[in-house]
Amino acid sequence: MKTHWPIIRSCLSVTGTYVFILWVASNLSEMVFPIDWWMPVVFGLGLAYTHAFEYFWHCVTLHLGIPGLLSLREGHRRHHVVFHGDNFRSPNMEAPQEIIGHWLVFPLLVIPHYFIFAAVCGLSGHGIEYLEVFFLAVALHFEHYEMSHWFTHQPLDNPYDTGIAWLNTHLPLIGPLIFKMRQDQIEHHRIHHEVPIWNFNFNPFYLGDIFRKTFRRDQLNGWWKFFGVSNQKKKPRT
User: Fold this and answer.
1) Would you say residue 96 lies in a domain?
2) Rounded mean pLDDT, 17-28
3) Residue 135 contacts by C-beta under 8 Å, 6 or more apart in sequence?
4) Chain segment 190-206, per-residue pLDDT in tens
5) Which pLDDT does position 124 carry in this prediction?
6) Is 9 domain-assigned?
């Protein structure tokens, strides 16, 4: 438990932030979760928004650098130094902060987003009843990113990948699909650590990398070939 305390604390921060959003929403207006066909659409938009923000944050903030936030770029540089080459999956837990961001990052980013979105929806008179659904998707996407990234840099026998391996052998159809997506995710990120101008998205389906032409695969044998993706030969746009 102590070994994985940083990721537990981060997930608690994400959950606590969403509970705070629910509390604010319940005080601002009558809070409801509308059950209609817009609900999955808004949930999907929340995932897509966070997916795009993940790409921007990683590529621009953590690699290119933003004035005033250059300490974040330096911290990410140390992450690449520690988890490089044969140490990509390392049992070295002396510096767990090199894997995971500060637990305050999510609330500091998301709470202002919530109030901005609430103001826009309130002024427009549309969509405010779906905000909790939207930010549920945001929270789940970020929590999945933090958890899967944490265990990507752990030895293969970690609880997360052990559980996915169990699904692969005990849950027909869905288990092998989840297992294959996880293997693709690890390989996608491994390539980023080898050549850090490629593969800035971490969560599937890597749409930021696809549309910004920073997607790279050693073996193009997966679903992404249907997007017309090929290994890039020129320097990606930044």
Assistant:
1) yes
2) 90
3) 18, 21, 46, 110, 113, 114, 117
4) 999 999 999 999 999 89
5) 87
6) yes
CA nearest 142: which of 58, 37, 39, 38?
58
Quick one: tokens of 90? 């390392």
> What are the residue ranges of helices labelled H in 127-219?
131-152, 159-170, 174-194, 207-211
**Looking at the domain assignment, is residue 167 inside a domain?**
yes
d(CA 129, CA 29): 9
Number of structural domains, the chain?
1
Count Cβ atoms within 10 A of the Cβ of residue 73 and give its class: 0-12 exposed, 13-18 middle, 19 or more buried. Answer: middle
Candidates 121, 137, 111; CA nearest to 23 is: 111
What are the tokens at 58?
Answer: 């990683």
Q: Is residue 235 part of a domain?
A: no
Measured in whole angstroms, the distance separating CA 136 from the mean position of its chain's CA atoms is: 14
C-alpha 146 chain-centroid distance = 6
- Residue range 80-84: mean pLDDT, rounded: 89
Spatial CA neighbour of 95 closest among 6, 189, 192: 6
Question: Mean of the pLDDT values across residues 67-77?
Answer: 92
| Residues written for the chain | 238
Here the tokens at position 238 are: 């930044």
Q: Which domain holds residue 169?
A: 5-227
Contacts 24+ apart (CB under 8 A), 32-41: 32/129, 33/132, 33/133, 34/129, 34/130, 34/133, 38/130, 39/130, 39/133
Nearest of 235, 225, 229, 196 to residue 215 by alpha carbon: 229
Is the separation of the CB atoms in 179 and 167 below 8 Å?
A: yes
